[in-house]
Every structure is written in C-alpha cells, then in structure tokens.
Amino acid sequence: xxxxxxxxxxxxxxxxxxxxxxxxxxxxxxxxxxxxxxxxxxxxxxxxxxxxxxxxxxxxxxxxxxxxxxxxxxxxxxxxxxxxxxxxxxxxxxxxxxxxxxxxxxxxxxxxxxxxxxxxxxxxxxxxxxxxxxxxxxxxxxxxxxxxxxxxxxxxxxxxxxxxxxxx
Length: 168
Hints:
By secondary structure, this protein is mostly helical. 51% of the residues lie in helices and 7% in strands.
C-alpha cells in the first residue's frame, strides 16, 4: 500500500509487548519473510519485555482495550518516532491500525503525540479502510505467514484464553 503510494518503506520492528518469547520469535520470522518478499528494509530493535512491563505497571488488571493499550501504543509509537528522527526520516506510520480490534482514533492520537514531540509527521492512515485487513490476510495466506490469535501482550493472551475457554 505505502510503496504503491510512492513511499520508501523501512520497517521498524519494536515489540517489547509481545509475550512469550516464542510468540515474539514467530512474529519476527513472519516480518522477516514479508520484508524479504516485498524488498523492504527491516530494522530490528532488541527484544526487552521489561520495557513494556515497566510501562504498564499498575495496569495489569485493566480490561482488554483499556488504559494499558493506550500506554502500549504510546511506548511503541514514541520509540518509532525516536528511530525515525535518528534516521532523518520526517514521516512515519504504524500497521497497528490495520487490526479491526484496535481503535484507530486512539492509535492515531498516540502517533500524533509522538510525532509532535520530535517535530515529525505521523501518517495517520487508517489501514482498515479499503479492505486493508482483508488484503493483509490475503498476503499472509499467500506467503504462508504466521498469524497470531491475540494482540501480543501477556494480558491479552490471558484474556484470549479466557474467552476461548468460555466458548467451549
């Protein structure tokens, strides 16, 4: 999508929220495969889940889509803005917004705040629009990429298990 719009795309993989390590590794391998297939540069940040746990301390019992998610968006988008600034990139975005489970306005607000701090531009394109979620699913299927069944953090994993248990 972005390449088609004329952007030079660099993927920054910073996800200290993903838990456990095995899940992080699966998502990282999928990202590597995607970037290779699309001819896109991938920049990896070290995996340090303590960064996430320190940020959300006290919010462990928040419901899914609660305040903890806002802190997670802020953490990840602030770090992305810092990386963009460090690389001399003036505009950045996030694929978080492609998920139908994520509130675009909350993600966009976090991205704009992170951009403003460093005098950057946050491209707040809602990737759910124009069948973005369906397109990403089709790409994942075509490339046989791993697709997760929960947001990524320990708390969403637990919430997902509780819902799955209640369904059976």
